[in-house]
Amino acid sequence: MDVLKLAIAEGKLQSGVDLLKSIPTRGSSPISDLLVRALWECGKVEEALETFYYLKEIGVRPRIEICNGLLSAFLRSKKLGHAWRLYAEMFRMKIPSNTATFNIMINVLCKEGKLRKAEGFLQIMESSGVRPTVVTYNTIIQGHCDRGRVDIGLELLKSMRERGISPDSYTYGILISGLCKRGKLAEASAMFSDMEEQGAKPTAVTFNALIDGFCNKGDLETAFTYRKKMKDRAIKPTVSTYNMLLHALLMEKRNKEADELLEEMQKKDELSPDAITYNILINGKCRAGDIDKALQLFEEMTQKGLPASKVTYTSIIYGLSKSKRVEDGYSLFKEATRRGLSPDTVMFNAMIDGLCSGGKGEKAFLLLEEMERMKVLPDEVTFNSLMRGLCLQGKVEEARELLAEMRRRGIEPDHVSYNTLISGYSRRGAVKEALKLRDEMLSLGFNPTVLTYNALIQGISASGDGDLAEQLLREMAADGVGPNDGTYIALLEGLAAPSSVD
């Protein structure tokens, strides 16, 4: 076997047909089986199929194990059409399918998205006298859960139990993961308890699904409870376990706990932070305003040979912009493109927002043109940033013209678009225009937010119309919009501002 694989690897054996022609072969031949296996194990599935057809031509009937191995090779290499052609040849050659054959072909159907046919194959399997196994059901359950149809997966679990087939750890893991992705965390926890009661041992993958589900919900207490259960059962956490918990802690600004968790991770010899870990940490430091630490992590990541992605650059560009280091962010943006990273909409938005906040609107509009050249579609966030930049420069009319430009491009303005313009007009003292925009916003079905009211109150207070300001406060209460600190600051700033005539 090793000699055959070496010959294939060195290019001395391109096809098994010539070799077999030199060997008198009839019936079943060990050399023919070894040859077909060596070809598919070297990734030459087409050559393996060619050899299979030659064997059929000279009357050799390959063993079912060889047929199944070749079917599996087609499945792994995503040559699903080849798998069906081989399966049809097996049928014509009267090579009876066994459990493994049916399981492979059911997997092929699931990969093709033909899940109803996969379930129908169960009946064909049983009518052929072959009993489905837990692997059979796991394959179909996985297919449904991958497509978000966990309810059908649960029905199949019930069906397999009725047939006397006990679910294993993999069955439970698939369903728990599917439930967590759908946000059905109570059901996932109940299934985990059932899993342990039935004696099926959870794996790190099972725990990671639960930890991820509860982290996404913001329930870190339960997430850490499952991490403790991992330890209690001597199941080692993976890099993914730490990444999910680190991300959740940093999103809640629990930076000290995140640092402690990272330190714990680094003490484990078998675990090393990966590119995802660094992206999480860099993003967390940028959100916390610690841009110097983020840049230090970026340098450390590069030194370790971990590839910086668009996500990495976007986080740092955002952090630099918030730290009023817009030019540094722009340089980093250009560096990313030089390194062959094509900026996406999110990355462009981070840079455009930074430039607009830093009073560099002209550069921001040049980036919009660059987006067009690179065929990267802007979205409402892109235009909202550009509007805010123009409003900060007092160019409110130009900002308002962007509403029409958005619609021309098929982008619908959102409540942020209107709040930005309302704020721009209010700061300039153009209260009537601000109120007109508020009415337009209402006519489109957008409910005013506390930011809408704050902007209006500031402008109205500055104009000296205290009665209208009080009316807006009452309107806020009627709409169920509670005032915040910004509301009272807007009121005081408006009163302190020089009065203006609209």
Describe, in plain words, how this protein is organized in 3D:
The protein is an all-alpha fold and 502 residues long. Among the domains are: 1-96; 236-305, Serine Threonine Protein Phosphatase 5, Tetratricopeptide repeat, CATH 1.25.40.10; 309-396, Tetratricopeptide repeat domain (Serine Threonine Protein Phosphatase 5, Tetratricopeptide repeat), CATH 1.25.40; 414-502, Serine Threonine Protein Phosphatase 5, Tetratricopeptide repeat (Alpha Horseshoe). The chain is 73% helix and 0% strand. It is built from 29 helices and no strands. It has helices at 2-9, 16-21, 30-41, 45-57, 64-76, 80-92, 99-111, 115-127, 134-146, 150-162, 169-181, 185-197, 204-217, 220-232, 239-251, 255-266, 275-287, 291-303, 310-322, 326-338, 345-357, 361-373, 380-392, 396-408, 415-428, 431-443, 450-462, 466-478, 485-496. The chain is elongated, with a radius of gyration of 32 Å.
Cα end-to-end separation: 89 Å
> How many β-strands, per DSSP?
0
Question: What is the helix tally?
Answer: 29
Multimerization state = single chain
Query: What fraction strand?
Result: under 5%
Radius of gyration: 32 Å
- What's the order of the H and E elements? HHHHHHHHHHHHHHHHHHHHHHHHHHHHH
Biggest sheet overview? none
From the spread of the alpha carbons, the general shape counts as elongated
Strand pairing plus helix content: what structural class? mainly alpha
Q: What fraction, in percent, of the residue positions are helical?
A: over 70%
Mean pLDDT: 86
- Which regions are unreliable across 5 or more consecutive residues at pLDDT < 50? 3-13
